[in-house]
Write a structure and sequence with these properties.
disordered C terminus; mainly beta; elongated; 10-stranded antiparallel sheet
Amino acid sequence: MEKPSWDTEDLLPLINASLSINNLLPDSVLQANPDSSMKIVYQNDIFHFSMDTLFKIPDTSLIKAYTVPVPVTVQPGQPVVNNNLSETTYNLHQAQLRTIIIKSGFVNYNIRSSIHEVTNFVYGLPCATLNGVPFTINISVPAAVGNTPGVYNQTYDLSGYIIDLTGINKNKINTIYTSLTALVSPSGHAVLVNPTDSLVINNTFQKFIPYYAKGYFGEDTLKIGPSETDFSMFKRIVDGTIQLEDVNFNLSIENPIGLDAQVFINNLNSINTRKGTNISLVNSVIGSPININRASESGGNVFPTYANFPLNTGNSNIKPMIENLPDKFGYSMQMITNPLGNISGSNDFIYSDKLLKVIMNMEIPLSFVANNLTLVDTLALNIASNSGVQNIKSGTITLIADNGFPFNATLQIYLLNAHNVAIDSLFSNVNTIDAAPINSSLRATGKKTTKIIIPLSESKMNLLYNTKKAISKIKFNHNRHRQFVHRPLPHHRSGGHVVGD
């Protein structure tokens, strides 16, 4: 025979992949009911109040120069400045603070001395204590040399300090004070101090972030938003629509701040940025005043207050909002702080890690209709390394799909180049993977196997040899009488083999 030939049938797996309900929804949002049916339980914080919303302590410098009115000779150990107290008051808008605990913050202490002898300083913040001990430092400033002053510069950490902001006489607000004693070094020499000589002290309080604050936070109107928050529940779904059987949704406000407030939710909307769709909540809570009572504290424990607003298919459009498959929620609000004035007697309080927030809690039976519900996944290919495939020029691929979902599905596989750009697809025709069988309760009872034959040309086979990655894109659709899925689902699994010359 001048041209010998033979037929072969090789069953060689090219791709194995599975798709479970966890590919549709994150594991963390799925819970099983006692009857083995599934439900979605999801919580998301829409808005977090910030301490900066009430007040922010700015960086502040307290600069003071000390001089003598007439020339004087100062003996070693003799004070140049004796127990001088200086106050500085912060402008904190409406807030009138009496006490703060510093979460993080610093004081920078800079001294320039034109006295021609070493000067010892005792610098303190009598109003700032750590474990009951006031902040105090003892430092030495070099002597001036000619017209060059002696300089000392150092930054000190005030984290954890409790600061009393009522001033020297305990009758002020937002006020911090320092103490200073300066004397010629006892080990030095007598020195002549002239009126032109000076001690210039610059105290700079930097980056004060309170952990706790107490006082009166003022009566103010705060505008919040418009803003958006991420919603991750449907992040794995790239296209399509669903029709839910039911949605139970609770909008709640948790207030762990010692502050009365009145809140107006002006808008709450479901945003699908992939499709550009936006659905606003329709419910009586929108635009209505919500009175929020202050929290209480005892022994370092905080007892928040709550306001809850159940949303369901009977009192709102929450169902179409969730069916919008949002990846974000938008909101705008307004808050009036202390609408009745200073009824706490300046005992409002706030902790930096216990802040007012708006929360949505959602529970959805996993029972829905799918319309072109689309998932995308990346597959690894390594056909070239399979010695049994390398000599095949053309043939067919048989896709074997075991489908445990109660939905029909269509599948496309896109082949990627080295830059992860799709350059070709595997299927030239629309295909259908049959839905799993269901019982009278509309639950999947097993798997349905579907085989799809795919012609494979020589050029496409060569492309497969050179492809390392592929993207699978699967669309789910319900067919009649197969609308809902209630229980944990078996995997969708697919494999293939090549038959060729």
